[in-house]
Design a protein that fits this description.
With about 350 residues, this protein is α/β, with parallel strands linked by helices. It has twelve helices and 15 strands. The N terminus is likely disordered. Keywords: Signal.
Length: about 350
């Protein structure tokens, strides 16, 4: 099955899946090792970088903070402040990144990413978190609302990501909060109570999109809070998957990119070659086809704007959107601690 190509990585997260160019180590999400996303690097060096993988942003941060060595890492936007505050990253020299000018300015609209000290983050990819469901078993009206995740009809038939950010985005949306940058105690507690109800229906928290796809394809679950890539894997395997991005309460968006880690053991110029390959317009099609994500480069997105996958999984929707932009590190830590309690049944 197509989506199983990275399942083995679940048993070897944060260890190199394969050794390639020893002069650049990329700490990345499983699935982003697809050569078509950074073909320019392979064209130049004849081999891909060495990859090590993780399944969750907080997991990746903890490993780097504990001394794991890599040259670049791929956090989503809300994590960058943690890397900065911990002194784990250094600014990029954008004079060495010609296509930096093509990045949509909305992805750099934060002093966390860009300030008078330099550019700390190169946004590269973005996607949606919404409802994936089995169209043969789940009526469309059931997924017209996020309350499907607390519907007793689906007890033991749902799956949520083992990602605090994505789960809290769901909880906030389901309880009427669409902006998490200034959450009140009342909003937090309301979302937490809802997530405790949702936890009763969860068969499993997926750690990786391939795991989510496997859970659905096996028949173990019928409804999941999903990124685009899990949907792509299921579509490639001819599973009857639907992707409801416009339930009445809305859905979420996120974007991710690369940071340059301090004290990397590889060659700095190869980190720039990797980013430059990522920002080539041709990478957009490979990113879309293999993972289902959009590209941050306006030039790159122009090359795929008419693709069906863009219209289905990345287009504007007529529903609220909670954008997973940087929020307070203290709030994220509070959410993470509460999420662990919720998963444990407390």
């Amino acid at each position: 099955m197509t989506f199983l190509r990275s399942t083995a990585l679940l048993f070897a997260l944060a260890a190199p899946a394969f050794a390639a160019d020893p002069e650049l180590t990329v700490f990345d999400w499983a699935g982003f090792e697809e050569p078509v996303i950074f073909q320019g690097y392979i064209d130049k060096y004849g081999q891909p970088p060495t990859f090590a993988f993780y399944g969750a942003d907080d997991e990746a941060f903890q490993k780097i903070a504990s001394g794991f060595k890599a040259d670049v890492a791929h956090p989503c936007s809300q994590m960058v402040s943690k890397y900065r505050d911990a002194g784990l990253i250094e600014p990029w020299d954008t004079s060495k990144i010609p296509a930096f000018k093509d990045i949509d300015p909305k992805f750099l609209d934060s002093k966390v990413f860009k300030d008078d000290q330099g550019v700390w983050y190169i946004p590269t990819d973005w996607g949606a978190t919404a409802i994936a469901y089995n169209k043969d078993k789940v009526p469309a009206e059931d997924v017209s609302t996020l309350q499907v995740f607390v519907n007793p009809k689906y007890e033991g038939r749902t799956s949520l990501p083992n990602s605090s950010d994505d789960v809290w985005a769901l909880g906030y949306l389901a309880t009427g909060t669409t902006d998490w940058t200034n959450v009140t105690d009342e909003q937090f507690n309301k979302a937490a109570a809802w997530l405790r109800e949702a936890n009763k229906n969860v068969a499993a928290y997926w750690a990786d999109p391939s795991e989510q796809a496997q859970l659905m394809a096996s028949g173990a679950v019928d409804v999941a809070w999903s990124w685009n890539d899990g949907v792509v894997y299921l579509q490639n395997d001819n599973y009857p998957v639907g992707f409801q991005r416009a339930p009445k309460e809305g859905s979420s968006t996120f974007f991710c990119g690369y940071v340059k880690l301090k004290n990397g053991t590889g060659k700095s110029e190869k980190a720039y070659d990797f980013i430059n390959a990522w920002l080539e317009p041709r990478s957009a099609k490979g990113l879309l086809d293999t993972i289902g994500y959009g590209h941050t480069s306006t030039v790159a997105m122009e090359t795929i704007k008419d693709e069906p996958a863009v219209k289905e999984g990345l287009s504007d929707i007529d529903a609220p959107i909670l954008a997973q932009t940087p929020n307070s590190p203290e709030q994220r830590q509070r959410q993470l601690a509460e999420f662990e309690k919720i998963k444990a049944g407390f």
